[in-house]
Amino acid sequence: METDWEELAVTVLLVDELYKGDTKLAGEIRQRVAKWGATNEDRARLRMKFEKPEDGASEPSEKELTDFDMDQELFNKLRVV
After folding, report:
1. How far apart are CA 13 and CA 28, in angstroms?
2. CA nearest neighbour of 37 among 49, 26, 27, 25
3. Are 33 and 22 in contact (CB under 8 A)?
4. pTM of the model
5. For residue 32, which phi and psi values (nearest 5 degrees)?
C-alpha cells in the first residue's frame, strides 16, 4: 500500500541520519522496523505466519541464509565501530 511505502521511506531517512552520526534516532528506528516484523521476535509478537510452499515448489537450498544468519548480517552492518 502507498502508506506502507511512505512509512518505509521515512524510516530510510532516519537510518541515513543514524549513519551520519545521530545515534539518538536508534530507538525510533528500532520501533519502526519492529512494526514490520524485522526480527524473529518481532514476527512472533505480531503473530505473523507464512504459508508453506505448494506441492512441487522448491524448498530453500542449504546455501540460503537462515533468519538467524540474516539477523546477524544486519547486526554486523549496523554495528557502530
Report:
1. 12
2. 49
3. no
4. 0.53
5. -65, -45
